[in-house]
Amino acid sequence: MSRLTTAALSLILALVASAAVIGDTSSSGSGSGFPGRPWNSTLDPYLEPSLQSTGYNATTSEGRGPLVDSANLDELFFARTPTAQKDTRPTPAPTGHSSILTTVHITSEGDFALLLPKDGELISDAENDGSAYCTPTSDGTYCRRRFAAGLIRAAAVEKAGDGSWIQVTGCLDSSKYPFASSDDGGQFDVRFPNGAQCAFGGYGASFVEQVEPSANRFCLRCCAAANDQENCNSHQDRAGCPVAFPGKYDFPQLGVDCS
């Protein structure tokens, strides 16, 4: 066999071996890369192997698997979304006394109440001393304080068909209330302030309220039953209103949008 033939054969064998290594991902190990290809830090410098853990889903629009173009970081991060399971741990029952000062209600878009912090206080710090404020046109039964004119820009009320809950969602003008500067918001419920209640279900029944001044957004859902973690889940306090309580946050007829 000539030297040329021997060299050509060696080159072919080397190429075949290289292709076999590239095509074999079995040695990459669980979580070492996207399924179907080995981990390559040069291709994906921002995606560490530890991020390839279970609990995340990523698929391409063609359904070929989770191949992500690392040149587009928006695609990379938005394609990898957590698959969180709803936390249904019970909320401890309230032990504080009920008070009209911490009672919220929902009657209509123009008649409801929200718990709000003290002047300049972060909502996350107001969980022990939040107070109820009502819309200017609210019935006086549950009201001692009123919203300033213009605080509520738009609101929408929804009810469950089976009567298990009622909610009000909408947009506010945070400049109309002395919220703490750059406050991203927080949550109130039956334990914060302790003994707070919604008139819909009464003392001890589940309710959850979130106020997000930086997003000019609010939501309040009241449930008929105590510890209703299916409809009034109290463990989504960092999710934000549109996730915790989907509803209306866009009011095009009013030119108001806080979605």
UniProtKB/TrEMBL annotation:
Signal peptide residues on this chain, from the entry's feature table: 1-19
Residue spans of biased composition, Polar residues class: 50-62
Signal recorded as keyword: yes
Region (Disordered): 26-65
Annotated keywords: Signal
UniProt-recorded name of the protein: Uncharacterized protein
